[in-house]
Design a protein that fits this description.
The complex is a heterodimer of chains A (187) and B (333). Chain A is mainly beta and 187 residues long. Helix content of chain A is 11%, strand content 34%. In chain A, the strands form four sheets. A four-stranded antiparallel β-sheet of chain A has the order 2-4-12-9, with no helix packed on it. Chain A is elongated, with a radius of gyration of 28 Å. With 333 residues, chain B is mainly beta. In chain B, the strands form four sheets. In chain B, strands 3, 5, 6, 8, 10, 11 and 12 form a seven-stranded mixed β-sheet that branches. Chain B is flat and about 105 Å long. The chains are: A mainly beta (187), B mainly beta (333). Chains A and B meet through helix 1, strand 1, strand 2, strand 4 and strand 5 of A and strand 1, strand 2, strand 4, strand 6 and strand 11 of B.
Chain lengths: 187, 333
């Protein structure tokens, strides 16, 4: 009798112990610990040109896709963080509509003064990488922020590319200098 | 003065890529997530409504000149298996709940500065995971083409709001599909579903064994840094070496997200023709316990069971000896 009771108790202890180890921890006090890494995830400054923006070129109107070679200069991202176990990162691109200043002189931005985001594409081209595998993907239409470069690495790495931009210009668009802003977001 | 030696300054011979630009990094992680690779580079946490979290991030300027850097929190989302800025970046819970200690940093070339991000989750907040990024942004620069370019770097935020217990993370590898690209490169597509309640950042590797002539190949890294939203299914692509024979092979795929790791395998054969895709093969899981925590639980349960059995044996033997002694006494009497 005593033996059976002993067995039951021992079994209960074993099962409870196992369950306790498996149960997720309840609300912890947020004691923090310093990450011992150094380094950082870095993006270069755009290779700019302080002169006034130039014409997109004298393109005859029509639905054509214009590509501006090496349009945005070279973009480089490097990840020199150490001791963080994984150094993956991604870069996405977004754009504003491209607009030519009020050609219609009616104080509004009309459709024929706009190249909408959806008509703008971004091609990273060849991505040169070291320390990991970087994959570039084409964003055919920048309606929303789209991933264009993905780096997979378990240590320090870097990648760079010289993107080209594609604009699909509508028949109705007025000739002029169209300006807008591209944003590269690395995280 | 002659002969005085100054201590040598030893510079570590690192193969560091040259770093010029605006940099960011996370500088702290909660102790209970210190072994989670994702928590070491992203702000990952689980809180109840009414709680707050904070993290310090470091912003550094190595552009070559002084810069005014904008720091702010933007909303993010998971679209087509990628973590991207949200369409309406300056709206939503994460933006409303977050604040940064400095909105504008004036950094000299070579200077770095710490910024504290605080997220105050209000009492009435609904459950679920929120996504965002703490951005450090350079001023826009006009370029030759007429476009202005703004470059920014950030630390992702994955914040889960809910009850006392953190919702579980889980995923399933359902099928492995062998194909050959148009260029003839053999590829494996792994169909993965996020069956848990938190977003996952997938990475991993594939090994091929039991190939023609007993060949082995790999490991090959899972190439696309996929972020899998809750309930989403995506194909993770693994590119293999064009030299390997078509098969058949036993393909073993191990995928991880943070501390969660699972392995599945399937027998596959690559098509001989470029641009062809073979039929998907069901992937069979290879390990019972998928998590470090699960394995630890199993191990401790086994140890306790052994201790329990040991105790049992001890008391049993003692009882038998006492019984034997009593018997001898009776006999003597």
């Amino acid at each position: 009798m005593k033996l059976r009771k002993l067995f039951a108790t021992a079994a209960a202890v074993a099962i409870t112990g196992g369950l306790a180890a498996a149960a997720p921890s309840s609300a912890d006090t947020t004691a923090t610990l310093s990450v011992t890494s150094s380094g950082s995830l870095t993006i270069t400054e755009p290779a700019g040109d302080a002169t006034t923006p130039k014409d997109l070129g004298s393109l005859s109107a029509g639905s054509i896709a214009a590509s501006a070679p090496n349009a945005l200069g070279t973009v480089s991202v490097s990840d020199t963080r150490s001791g963080i176990l994984n150094n993956n990162w991604t870069v996405s691109v977004s754009t504003t509509d491209f607009v030519t200043p009020d050609k219609n002189a009616n104080s509004t931005v009309d459709a024929n003064e706009t190249i909408p985001k959806a008509s703008i594409g971004y091609t990273p081209g060849t991505v040169t990488a070291s320390g990991g595998t970087a994959t570039g993907s084409i964003a055919a239409s920048l309606t929303a922020a789209t991933n264009v470069v993905t780096m997979l690495a378990t240590g320090q790495n870097s990648a760079s590319w010289a993107p080209t931009i594609q604009f699909t210009i509508d028949n109705n668009d007025l000739a002029g200098t169209y300006t807008g802003t591209f944003t590269h977001s690395a995280s | 003065m002659a002969g005085a030696l100054a201590p040598a300054i030893v510079r570590a011979q690192s193969q560091q890529p040259e770093q010029r630009g605006l940099g960011i990094r996370l500088t702290e992680v909660p102790t209970d997530r210190a072994d989670d690779p994702r928590a070491n580079r992203y702000i990952i946490d689980h809180v109840e409504p009414g709680e707050s979290i904070s993290r310090r991030i470091e912003v550094s300027n190595t552009t070559g000149e002084a810069k005014t850097v904008r720091v702010y929190v933007g909303a993010a989302e998971i679209r087509q298996a990628r973590f991207v800025p949200a369409e309406e970046e300056d709206e939503g819970d994460i933006v409303e709940w977050s604040s940064v200690s400095t909105h504008t940093l004036d950094l000299a070339d070579g200077e770095r500065s710490l910024v504290t991000v605080t997220i105050d989750v209000p009492e009435g907040a609904s459950g679920g995971e929120r996504y965002g990024v703490v951005w450090a942004e350079l001023p826009g620069v006009p370029t030759e083409s007429g476009a202005t370019v703004v470059n920014r770097v950030g630390v992702r935020i994955y914040l889960s709001v809910g009850g006392e217990e953190e919702p579980p993370s889980d995923f399933e590898i359902s099928t492995l599909t062998a194909r050959r690209t148009e260029e003839g490169v053999p590829q494996i597509l792994a169909q993965v579903t996020n069956t848990g309640q938190r977003a996952l950042d997938m990475s991993g590797e594939l090994e091929l064994t039991e190939g023609p002539g007993g060949l082995r190949a790999g490991p090959f890294p899972a190439q696309l840094g996929t972020t899998l939203g809750i309930g989403d299914t995506a194909d993770i692509t693994i590119d293999l070496d064009p030299e390997i024979p078509s098969g058949p092979w036993v393909a073993t795929l191990t995928l991880q997200s943070g501390r969660l790791e699972k392995t599945s395998e399937a027998t596959i054969t690559f098509p001989d023709e470029a641009g062809e895709t073979a039929a998907p093969v069901e992937a069979v899981p290879r390990e019972v316990t998928g998590t470090v925590r699960g394995r630890a639980a199993l191990a401790s349960a086994l140890v306790l069971l052994l201790i329990a059995l040991g105790l049992l044996l001890f008391f049993f033997l003692r009882r038998r000896r006492r019984d034997e002694d009593e018997e001898h006494e009776h006999v003597r009497a």
